[in-house]
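Hi all, a correction to my earlier message: I attached the wrong file for Oligopeptide transport system permease protein. Here's the right sequence:
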Amino acid sequence: MIDQFKTTPDMWEPIILEDREKDKIVRKSLTYWQDAWRRLKKNHLSMLGLGVIILLAFAAIVGPVLSPYSYSDQDLNMSNMPPRLELHKLDDGTFVHVHKEYRLYEVTENGELIGRVQHTKEDMVNKVREFELNGNEIVIDYKLAAINKDVPNAPKFTLTINGQENATPDKTVWNKTYLFGTDTLGRDIFVRNLYGARISLLIALVATIVQFFIGVIYGGVSGYVGGRVDNFMMRVVDIVDTIPLMLYVILLMVVLGAGLMTIIIALGSVYWVRMARLVRGQVLSIKENEFILAARTLGASPWRIMVRHLIPNSMGAIIVSLAMMVPSAIFTESFLSFIGLGVSAPQASWGTLASDAMGGLRTYAYQLFVPSFFISMTVLSFNFLGDGLRDALDPRLRK
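and the right structure:
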């Protein structure tokens, strides 16, 4: 009997290396979130949007701290300064800039503002202003402003330096003192837009937190319990959703006054509704699966089933919805501030900056362009990120 199991050398055969390696697992196993991040990184527009959001958040936090100016600092001598300065060179090498309001500024060659030069004489009838700087006589004749007011790109003044007319600027440089220029009160537009980014990103953060905690829990409970409880909770959602946001804001302004807290409370009381409906739909479809029945059979409590099974399996749709609703919250805050229902002066948000710039749109268009650019860039970045998350978190696209 023992001899039947005796082995001999001729019974063995060497294994070929290729045959031994063909069944080896060469790719590391990835979790759901690792695979989602891998696919998100392949979407260049989404990564660009994520990078812009991170850069904007960093600039909003650090920028106002490093700047020598505050969002509320005013200097009427520096009002409406443009981001690009046209410089005229004097005989002694000094550079000056002639403002659109026919003010004269001494500027360094690199574009740093030294100060405003006060006129020594002004003839209101003949529309002439005379200045003196370091022994140089400078005359600004702005009679052409009335003549060419309807002619685009036509000269509005003539500049005479030491008796010689200086028609064209010697060079054009960036404003190194105020990177984006100043507004009508001489406040730094760059710092005020960074401060506005703080408010807009804070609104985005609050809207995200409210949607996640109130909307997810409310919708999860409604979908899991079902029956009359679900019907009652959804009718509450319908009532909240039918009341316009503008009415919420006006009523809160009457009670609390205008300000950032009013906007936060108004958005927080409305923006969880869509998330609640989304989560309810997800829970209604997931709770009929076999693993939920198994958890019930094992004695898991409803709260544990919802927290450990239902909500985690809905996180893909929840995260995508959060990313897509954040731009809506930012745009809503900007719109409310634009019409005067947002933050109060001297606080600045992108909406209030755009509203303040409307009065000088034809003359100082850059004051409106800067906040509009920040709003568009932020909303577009969140939309790019939301589209990428939608594709990355879709389990049907996993490979």
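Sorry for the mix-up. The chain is about 50% helix and 10% strand.
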